[in-house]
């Protein structure tokens, strides 16, 4: 499908493209191995006694635990969780994300957000909400676009809301976004545990839970967020669906193993869809918890309660086992839980708490959970989305204005990492939830100024082919 963004999105992109590369972008142009390009580790590090002992004691006391509980403990345990105590992003961490590779990624998302804000009728208040904001690089690039399009956003009250469970990362984000201009809450019971202000005077708030974000017109961003949420893992057997659990290896007491639970569990009974045909299924849907199903449900409740429109952009991993050359695309294949440490594949049960865990995202399940509450667009590949948003035109501007050979090579390498089908281009996907009114045809004008034809709704940028004309 080809859409022509004659006077709106095209103008936004053109205005942003006139600006040169950000001064600090030299760091971001560094091309490091992503979580997609991993090789088996040469050796295993020693187990983390605190987390391993904690899990061992828990299993001995209560029996095997679900994969969801294992992931929750390993990643977000308030004392020894991987996300809580580690700075895992970047070339020196365990994986690198698109915003760390190139500022163009965040620039184009900033244009997308402004375009959707305009398509929503230019609300007076705009809350940008990011779930799992990493180092704050993506939000920083988006806010820079906001400053470049200040005249377009003139009159709108813009605020940034970050949902982050890691105190260590929140400090990194605060330094990136506010410099030293942020303060922590005096009590742990306060919904906003940190607040600050950017150099441009834009307020920034940090929350541990999505439900603490105040009601209002919001655009949500979840970049590499759902793939790290706790999942339940199921296997089809001759006796029906059974849940995969984590247990102690009887032959090695300091090791864990996966086991198939012999009888049905509440999760295997309630979470597997009746029409499911696959042999192995992963579902992130724990009621009241941070599961992927709970997130759109919570947004639905907030939308109905506040009677506001919802604009959401989700970008998630596709199939990440690059050695199989099997791409996610539209087939919605889900092959398992993976661990990443030092940009290499890592045994998910080895040294718990020392490595990142990630699972493929079931977009079909997200669609089912949303039901008729929102319009779903995608998933489309990252390559398609960025090209639809004009990444090629942006690259031409940057290369035309760049004479340094090294910088030019970095620009080309980062572009290749983001768009190459064998790298991030087709293994990362974009998925969007929009209020149905966003895609509805505007009402025809009545009276003397009656139009012959009802105008078509503004196309959603990124999900249709962009044409400069």
UniProtKB/TrEMBL annotation:
Signal peptide start and end residues: none
Location in the cell: Mitochondrion
This enzyme's EC code(s): 2.1.1.320
Catalyzed reaction equations: L-arginyl-[protein] + 2 S-adenosyl-L-methionine = N(omega),N(omega)'-dimethyl-L-arginyl-[protein] + 2 S-adenosyl-L-homocysteine + 2 H(+)
Any one GO BP annotation for this protein: mitochondrial respiratory chain complex I assembly
Keywords on record: Methyltransferase, Mitochondrion, Transferase
Presence of keyword Transferase: yes
Predominant localisation class: mitochondrion
InterPro entries: NDUFAF7, NDUFAF7_sf, SAM-dependent_MTases_sf
Molecular function, one GO term: protein-arginine omega-N symmetric methyltransferase activity
One Gene Ontology term, aspect cellular component: mitochondrion
Protein family according to the UniProt entry: Belongs to the NDUFAF7 family.
Function: Arginine methyltransferase involved in the assembly or stability of mitochondrial NADH:ubiquinone oxidoreductase complex (complex I).
PANTHER family found in the cross-reference section: PROTEIN ARGININE METHYLTRANSFERASE NDUFAF7, MITOCHONDRIAL
Protein name according to UniProt: Protein arginine methyltransferase NDUFAF7
Species per Swiss-Prot/TrEMBL record: Eleginops maclovinus (Patagonian blennie)
């Amino acid at each position: 499908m080809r859409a022509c963004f004659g006077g709106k999105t095209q103008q936004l992109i053109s205005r942003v493209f006139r600006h040169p590369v950000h001064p600090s972008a030299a760091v971001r142009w560094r091309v490091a191995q992503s979580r997609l390009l991993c090789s088996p580790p040469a050796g295993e590090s020693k187990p983390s006694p605190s987390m391993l002992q904690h899990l061992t004691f828990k299993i001995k006391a209560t029996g095997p635990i679900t994969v969801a509980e294992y992931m929750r403990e390993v990643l977000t345990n308030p004392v020894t969780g991987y996300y809580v105590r580690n700075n895992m992003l970047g070339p020196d961490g365990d994986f690198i994300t698109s915003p760390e590779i190139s500022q163009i990624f965040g620039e184009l998302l900033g244009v997308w957000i402004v375009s959707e804000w305009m398509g929503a009728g230019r609300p007076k208040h705009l809350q940008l909400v990011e779930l799992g904001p990493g180092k704050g690089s993506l939000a920083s690039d988006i806010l820079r676009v906001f400053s470049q399009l200040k005249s377009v956003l003139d009159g709108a009250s813009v605020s940034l809301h970050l949902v982050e469970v890691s105190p260590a990362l929140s400090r990194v984000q605060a330094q990136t976004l506010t410099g030293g201009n942020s303060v922590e809450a005096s009590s742990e019971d306060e919904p906003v545990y940190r607040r600050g202000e950017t150099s441009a005077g834009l307020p920034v708030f940090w929350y541990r839970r999505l439900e603490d974000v105040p009601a209002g017109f919001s655009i949500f961003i979840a970049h590499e967020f759902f793939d790290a949420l706790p999942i339940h893992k199921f296997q089809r057997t001759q006796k029906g669906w059974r849940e995969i659990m984590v247990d102690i290896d009887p032959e090695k007491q300091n090791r864990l193993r996966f086991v198939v639970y012999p009888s049905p569990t509440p999760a295997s009974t309630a979470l597997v869809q009746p029409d499911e045909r696959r042999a192995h299924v992963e579902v992130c849907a724990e009621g009241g918890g941070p599961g992927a199903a709970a997130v759109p449900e919570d947004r639905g409740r907030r939308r109905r309660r506040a009677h506001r429109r919802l604009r959401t952009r989700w970008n998630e991993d596709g199939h990440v086992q690059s050695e199989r050359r099997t791409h996610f695309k539209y087939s919605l294949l889900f092959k398992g839980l993976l661990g990443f440490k030092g940009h290499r594949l890592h045994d998910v049960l080895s040294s718990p708490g020392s490595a990142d865990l990630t699972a493929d995202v079931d977009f079909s399940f997200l669609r089912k959970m949303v039901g008729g509450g929102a319009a779903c667009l995608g998933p489309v590949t990252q390559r398609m989305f960025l090209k639809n948003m004009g990444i090629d035109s942006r690259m031409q501007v940057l290369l035309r204005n760049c004479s340094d050979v090294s910088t030019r090579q970095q620009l080309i390498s980062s572009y290749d990492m983001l768009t190459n089908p064998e790298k991030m281009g087709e293994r990362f996907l974009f998925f969007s939830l929009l209020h149905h009114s966003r895609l509805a045809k505007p009402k025809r004008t009545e009276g003397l100024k009656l139009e012959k034809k009802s105008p078509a709704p503004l196309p959603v940028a990124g999900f249709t082919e962009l044409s400069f004309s």
